[in-house]
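Lecture notes, unit on protein representations.

Consider one protein chain, 506 amino acids long.
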Amino acid sequence: MAGGGGRPHDGPARLGTILGKARSGGQTVEEALTRWLVYPGVLRADLLTAAGVLISLGVSLHILMRKRVVGSAIGWTGLVWLSPVFGTALYLTFGLNRVERRARKLKRRPSQQYDETPQAPASVPEAYAPLDRAVRAITNLPTVAGTDITVYRNGDEAYPAMLEAIAGARSSVALSSYIFLDDEIGQTFIAALKQAMDRGCQVRVILDGIGSGYFYPAAWRRLRRLGVPAGLFMHSVLPWRMPFLNLRTHKKLLILDGRVAFTGGVNISDGNRVARKPKFPIRDTHFRIEGPVVEQLTQAFLVDWAFVAGEELEGEAWMPRLSPAGHLTARVVTSGPDADIEKIATVVLQAIACARTSIRLTTPYFLPNDLIVSALCLAAARGIAVDVVIPRRSDHRIVDWATRAHIDPLLENGVRVWLDEPPFDHSKALSIDGEWCFIGSANWDSRSFRLNFELNVEVYDPGLARRLDAFILDKCETPLTRADLDARPHLVRLRDAAVRLLLPYL
C-alpha cells in the first residue's frame, strides 16, 4: 500500500477527479497531470515499476542475443532484474563487448608483392600444416615468407632502435601505444614525431583513451599542440558518449615507411628504461620486423586509424611494394570485440592442440578462460612438457590474487607453474616444440583474449622459437606448488576466490 492510503484501482478515479476539477477551476491539463503524477498514490509507483520491467526486459533480450558465455549472460540478466537502473548502467558501461568498425580488406597485389620478385611461397613444417590451415581460416590471411625479426630487451634496447627508425623515416610514421606518457622518454618520442612531420613524413598516432590517461592524456595534448595528427581510441570524458569504457586498444605498433615495424609489449614510459633504475622498473620484450608481413601490420593500423579519425590512408607512403628481408615465415593475428572476437585465443587453442613435445609461455597476467585451462591440462596429461611463467608480483595486485585462485587445476594435472622474481616482467611469449612461436601484445587473460584490441604475430622458425624457449626456461627457478597454495591463510584464500569472480574484466 502506498502513502496516502490509496489502492491500485484508486489511480484512474483520482485522475478523473483531478481533471474534472481542472476544467471547473481553470487549470490547464499540464498542471492537472503534474498534480496527479506527484500525488503520493499507488499509480506513480506502478508507472515506475512498469518502466523498470520494460527496461529489464529490453536489456535481457539484448543479453540473450549477444552474450555467448552462459555464466556472463546469467549474471548480467540477474543484475538488471534485481536493479533495473543500476544494472542497466553497469551493463551499458562494461557489458557491451562488440564494436562495429568499417572492414578494410587487405589489398594484395595479384601476382607480385615484392620489387620485381615473384612472391615467395610460404612453407611451414609438415607437422604444422594443420595449424597453418586452421590459422588461415581464423584470420583469412596467409603466412608470408621473407620475414626478418630482431629481438630487443626492455626499453633500454628498444627505444634507441625505435627513435633511430623514426629519424630515418622518409614517407610515413604510424604509432599506436596503449600507454604513452608525457615523461622524459615520451617527450623524446613526441619530438621525434614532430621532426618527422616537419621533414615531410605523414605521421599518425593512436593512444588508448584509458591506458594513456583518462582525462585527455598529456602526451595526446602535447602532440595536438604541435600539430601532429593524434587520436584517442574509444574515448570521451562524457560517460554517455563513451558506452564502451571496458574496451581498449592494447596494441603496440610503430611502422616506418610501410617497410619496418616494431611490435611487442613495450609501452612508452620511463618505467621501461630499467637500466635507469626507475621507482617501478618494467622489464619487457619488443621486436623489429621487416619483410612482406609488414603489410599485414600496416593494415591493422590503417583499420584502427579509420575507426579513430575517419580517415582512409592510401598510397605508396603507407603500402609500398616490399622485398624479402629474411628467411622466417610469419603471419599477423588481430583480435578484438568486433569481427575479430577471440581470434588470438582461438589460435592459442589450435597451437596447444598441435603441440607434440613442449609448450612454454611467459605472461605478466595469467587468467585464461576454462577452455584454455583445460587445453593446457590435457596437453600435460598426454605427456607434453607445459611450463607457465608468471610474475611473483605484477603491477596489479588484484590480478595476482585472482591468479592464485585460478591455477589449481593446472598444478593438479601436471602443468608446471613458475614464479618470475622481481623486477616485474611484462613480456608475453609462447613457444611450441621449439619450432613455432607467438609474440605480440596479448596477455593470457580474458581482457586480452576477449575485450581488448590486440595484435600478435605467429612465426614459424626454430631459431626464434628456441631463443624464446631459452628466455622462458631461464625464468623457471621458483616453482609454485599446490602446497604453496594450500599454505595460504584461510582468509587470504577466501579473498583470492572472491576476486577471481571478476575474471572476465580483470
